[in-house]
Specification:
- The chain is built from nine helices and seven strands.
- It is globular and about 60 Å long.
- By secondary structure, it is an alpha/beta fold.
- α3 runs parallel beside α4 and α4 packs parallel to α5.
Length: 281
């Protein structure tokens, strides 16, 4: 893996939840390339094993664990296994998250006529909304509760959450996901203050628009072309393209390196091609 620059993570143990996804896997590989021992936590064993294989073939050291991030019991067992294999956690990347189709409206704007045949705000399922909030918000809180215990009063420990552009301005169609990501940004600031006296820095990365398995159905037509929503996103992104997962790595490495960002705490860094800076006119 080609990195924008190197930082020394030798002797560090990194835990990446959602580490088998498009963004999580790139993060895991980057940390391993810098010398960290990486534990990948996700659900799909086949995808987990592929990321572990990729890291191993690149000369890194990684293990993969199939864990439900909403189960504190499973997370605690994973913590014990990781500690036995690698040692206590130094770096926690909270990357688990996602949306649910039943928490998504079909139309950007409500009209009585269109609501007859389409899913409107009034049709969003309570269970789906809860699922989205649980996966994103609780899926950040619970791993932090479990793994941050190992970080207290140890030099260079840090938590990095994955927020989103949705946390700045809610996107149409996805109210639950937007709200959950806003909650993660708020939690990032809260945790940064809470842990400030015991040496644990907490920051977040807020990716703009990157094509992932989770959003393809909202952005890509069946034949593979960009749909109207994708074209609208690109038109509102001054750099006029979607981001590449590798473009998150420079910010990630800066935030995990104590020497580079030791006084950086409680921030949410947008990586969005200028989307958040552009008014549209």
């Amino acid at each position: 893996m080609i990195l924008p620059f190197m930082v020394d993570l030798e002797g560090k143990v990194a835990v990446v939840t959602g580490g088998s996804g498009v963004i999580g896997s790139v993060i895991a590989r980057a940390l391993a390339s810098c010398g960290a021992q990486v534990a990948i936590i996700a659900r799909n064993e086949e995808k987990i094993n592929q990321v572990v294989t990729d890291i191993t073939e690149e000369g890194g050291n990684a293990i993969g664990l199939s864990v439900d991030v909403l189960s504190k019991n499973e997370l605690s067992k994973a913590r014990n296994e990781i500690a036995e294999r690698f040692g206590p956690c130094d770096i926690l990347i909270n990357g688990a998250g996602g949306n649910h189709p039943d928490a998504t409206t079909d139309q950007e704007f409500y009209s009585v006529e269109s609501s007859v045949e389409n899913t409107s705000f009034f049709d969003l399922e309570r269970g789906a909304i809860s699922t989205v909030f649980d996966l994103n918000y609780l899926g950040t809180i619970l791993p932090s509760q479990v793994f941050a215990k190992d970080m207290i009063n140890r030099e260079g420990t840090t938590i990095i959450n994955i927020s989103s552009m949705n946390s700045y301005r809610p996107l149409t169609k996805i109210p639950a996901y937007s709200g959950a990501k806003a909650a993660i940004s708020n939690l990032t600031q809260w945790l940064a203050v809470y842990f400030s006296k015991v040496g644990v820095r907490v920051n977040a990365i807020a990716p703009g628009f990157f094509l992932t398995n989770q959003n393809e159905n909202l952005l890509i037509n069946e034949e593979g072309s960009y749909n109207e929503r994708a074209e609208k996103i690109i038109s509102q992104t001054p750099m006029e393209r979607f981001g590449e997962p590798e473009e998150l790595i420079g910010t990630l490495l800066w935030l995990v390196n104590q020497q580079a960002s030791g006084f950086v705490n409680g921030i949410i860094v947008p990586i969005d091609g200028g989307f958040s800076a552009y008014s549209g006119v």
